[in-house]
Amino acid sequence: EDIAFSCIFVVVSLLLLRKNALLLLKRPATLFVMLFLLAVLISLSFSQDLQKSLSEFYKYATYFLAFFAVSSFDAQERKCLLKILILSCALVSFYALRWLIGGLFSTLDYHHHYGTTEGFAVEYLSRGRAFVPFPTPSGLAGYLILFAPLSATLLLETEKNCRLPLLKRTIKNSLLLLAVMLIYLALLATQSIGGFLSLA
Fold this sequence. Notes:
Blueprint: H1 2-17, H2 21-25, H3 28-45, H4 50-71, H5 75-113, H6 120-126, H7 137-161, H8 166-172, H9 174-190, H10 193-199
Helix pairs in contact: 1-4, 3-4, 5-7, 5-9, 7-9, 7-10
């Protein structure tokens, strides 16, 4: 599934790159990225397990193509991408909060019903921290702190630039406000001190 998703991602990135490929080739940073990828390919040729190394190389290719695709965007496309990323983060936050409220206690009841009251799983779940769909609360917090300041800044910027009355302005930005609230609530629900310190 990861390889299939990465292949789709690579194709989409190449389609996005098509219009601005020549402009990107003229940038100095492009040379360094190309040299890095060349170094990775050379190191692959000396690998003792070539098949395993090649199976990991697609990750590098995916990340760098995504970097190039985004760097070729104009201001309008970047703002659109930012809104999509914030929306996806809000959906992840909603999923994490939904599982914390609806799934955590039923999972604990399941463990208690089958007598697995001891052990790591029960102790881990008993902490009552949001972590789904990540394996740890710190992982979820690390993801959320990437978008928490961005979402709040975008909301404040939209409010500032909007000339509508306050009531209409709030209605207009209700979706973005809901996204900001979900992200910050999920971040609080992780109870991750490292996440809070990183955000600060």
